[in-house]
Design a protein that fits this description.
Oligomer: single chain
Strand content: 15-25%
Low-confidence stretches: 370-374
CATH topology: L-arginine/glycine Amidinotransferase, Chain A
Radius of gyration: 19 Å
CATH superfamily: L-arginine/glycine Amidinotransferase, Chain A
Strand order of the largest sheet: 1-7-6-5
CATH architecture: 5-stranded Propeller
Bound molecules: 6-aminohexanamide
Amino acid sequence: MSKLLTATPRHDGFRMPAEWEPHVGCWMLWPERSDNWRAGAKPAQHAFAEVAAAIAQGEPVTVCASPGQYLIAREMLDPDIRLVEMTSNDSWIRDCGPTFVVNDAGEVRGVDWKFNAWGGLAGGLYFPWDQDDLVGEKVVELERDDRYAPDFILEGGSIDVDGEGTLLTTEECLLNPNRNPDLSKAEIEQYLRDYLSVDAILWLEKGVYLDETNGHVDNFCRFVAPGEVVLTWTDDPTDPQYEISTGAYERLKGMSDARGRSLKIHKIHVPAPVLITAEEAAGVDKVAGTLPREAGNRLAASYVNFYIANDVIVMPRFDDPHDGPAQKTLAKLFPTRRIVTVPGREILLGGGNIHCITQQEPLGRRSFQIAGAA
Ligand code: KQY
């Protein structure tokens, strides 16, 4: 049903759209592993259900849950959310799911990258990751889309595009020897050009301080419109984040995008450091091969990890004085969308946030098929 394609999206006239372009829906995976999520993942499940409900205000949501969790998820999710059974190792579909690409005729295809749990045996976050690596293929198959399967390790959270030929990423992640150690920077860039149809690749040095993904850009710096980015920021020169953010700001100031525009940079201040409590750490099972959670460790909290749905922006909040200003900035940048905030702490305790647990699927021409069938 879903054909494996051997050319590249660029060759075939397909590109990765920006996240603000129309979606047919959003995909999520249901959390359950107790060595990453505290208290048997129950608080995380409530948080994921809240994120799904918030996104469902703006577009259809599909959640994938394991056979053992199917009925539990069905009970906890709103009835308008589609639930399908799917096995995975954890719940970060931004990273293990497909990247959808579209062409000018509105056809949609999937790029099914290789996934190694953010570093494989050289610093990856858990073992094994074989079921996560199948998620991209399974989602694309369910959608009856054709699929590209490059021999290239990439997580969706490590890139961000403007849909007009420009891509943002970090050296900390994409040039990390635990991803594609046999490829040079030029070869890595060529994969991005070929499989996402981008022409300008904007390299930042690092991502958010202590981000366990090796500096995913989706937690640090994102496009909000062609020629405009939001950047995780702090005014506190004693915070290690300061040097990272000011360094990125300086680089961004000197960059131009694929259309030759210089970038307008909007700063979004981080919340006060979010530290794991003793109770939270004690609730996570310790398992060899999985990154342990220690009390007092700082988490990579950032408002930039929001999701852009058709009608709403879903933004994490941390019950911090910076919540309001972050929300106001996004409201100004996305005037046609409502900003919905959901509690970010439980998701952050697992190592990421809202953008990391979601994957948009572009509308493409399926809209006409749906309309025609009605
Ligand atoms: O932030 C992400 N994109 C994923 C984080 C994975 C954490 C696994 N413990």
